Amino acid sequence: MTDTFPRRLIENAEKFSERPAIREKDLGIWQTWTWRQMRDEIFDFANGLSTLGFSRGDKLAIVGTNRPRLYWGICAAQCLGGIPVPVYADSVAEEMRYVLEHAEASIVLAEDQEQVDKVLEVMSGVDRLKCVIYDDSRGLKDYDHSFLHDFSEVQESGRRLAQEKPDFLSREIELGTGSDTAIILYTSGTTGHPKGVVLTHDNVLITSLNSARMDNLTEKEEMLSYLPLAWVGDHIFSYGQAYVTGMCSNCPESEATVHSDIREIGPTYYFAPPRVFEQLLTSVMIRMEDAGRLKQRMFHAFMAVASRCGTDILDGNPVSLSDRILYTIGNWLIYAPLKNTMGFSRIRVAYTAGEAIGPEIFDFFRSLGVNIKQLYGQTEAAVFITAQPDGEVYADTVGKPSPDVEVKITDDGEVVYRSPGVFQCYYKNEKATHETKNEEGWVMTGDAGYFDDKGHLKIIDRAKDVGKLKSGALFAPKYIENKLKFFPQIKEVVALGRDMDHAAAIVNIDLDAVGNWAERNNIPYSSYQELAGHPRIYEMIKSNIEQVNRDLSEDSVLSGCQIRRFLILHKELDADDGELTRTRKVRRRIIAEKYGVLINALYSDAQNCHVSTEVTFEDGRKGTIEGDLRIEDAQVFESLRKAG
Asked: Are 308 and 230 in contact (CB under 8 A)?
């Protein structure tokens, strides 16, 4: 196998010369670069980086959304033996400062003026930073260009270097090996500062190749590249697998146009975290509530057919002739138009991962004929640990070990693995490396799980989060939270209960879904806070929680952690306020510290609680939101399993 990305690029430019490698929608028009054209663009930029003093072992920080030039920057750095370090585009200045300084970045490749401004704000604290290269020049005309460089101008200087030293870049590429560091990806930092995960070319290429073969991916696939560049999922799907298969990555015009752009591209291969599928289902349900009675009745009737037999048809299982006929009619009237609206008409393989997806959401998309599957992975594994093979797709598992991956469960119930994708180390953090990976190459995931009788892995929760109530009943917060987030009215949940008398919950409503409901029911509101405190919204959320409690009562293991009390938070949990990571994982320690007064009230007899919370506005200013929050009791149910 070709053992570095630059060598793979050269091979693809020969093998797939005129096939599309990457597209970008700009000003409403899709622009396409073939593999040959992309090679030339990357080589020009790599040579240009060299003229700026970038060399083997240097770090190129890359900050922005999904743009072809930012992807090219990854490979250009690798051509010179340098190391790309993507940074989350929505990082606030201090978060960016930490990564740039910790990674020892010497050059930053920034998307636009917004990102350049953040770099300039923190540059005094980044000792090794020499200059910034920008992609989009809008708004930067009057900036100091002794420090700033236009991407095109860097390429132009690269072309001049190539004329003077035509063999320079090829010699640099030849020096590279599969064991060289290919990228440093920083974790989301759920419990503190993010850690820099060091992955080699072998880690990424071998894992990408194995996973692509598992799903029979070819150069004909179309992939939508819209997830954060700094996230390992995007790096594997939009970069690693694209290079090993020759498929085309498609960059949407903006975050706001993703849903319309996906309909134009019609991807055949798709990845999204559960929250994206949750949002899609919520939007579908909102639209149906606005539809006429006839359309609503038709939708619900044929969705009942899909629920009954759609997944069996997708998996090739036997289905009665009458159901098959009804499903065909439903496909013509409902399923196909719905998939087309979502841009899913051509999807051959879709994956979700990052956290558990609600089984109802999972089954909804599969019943429409969308081959969505689950995988389980980590940054430290170059994503793939387990994945669901075709024909073995279950809502409550994350599949079997991926090719060349070994997985086992420790005596404490923790999932551990080793594979070709196992990271080399945490950058400049030997202690954390040894705590996570042992001398035999086994990586501790920190997740609690087990293999079922089908050989599929089931993840219960984060091992450190799984606990017990004072009664001794098992408490798995993420499991409870995921069940609640199935309801379109609920956007985020924090389940509480470890070492407490009972389980409780702090809820965020989904402003789009609940706001739409409020408008249709003539309920006026002027803000999220006002809507969240409305009595009828509390009734709605209470019914959702009690439905989950009924479901939990049928679970012999988790029936004891039904939610007894809850409140609806007066603000949305926000990564800028430190409450969520950039990948939207709850920072439980921050929540416990920040909302201690609310947690104490949930475990008292109080019916109301006053809270004052500092928030960060979009322009970086700080402010305060305060209010009196209502605390509501929810009905709990006797354990049916135990009673039976």
From this structure: no
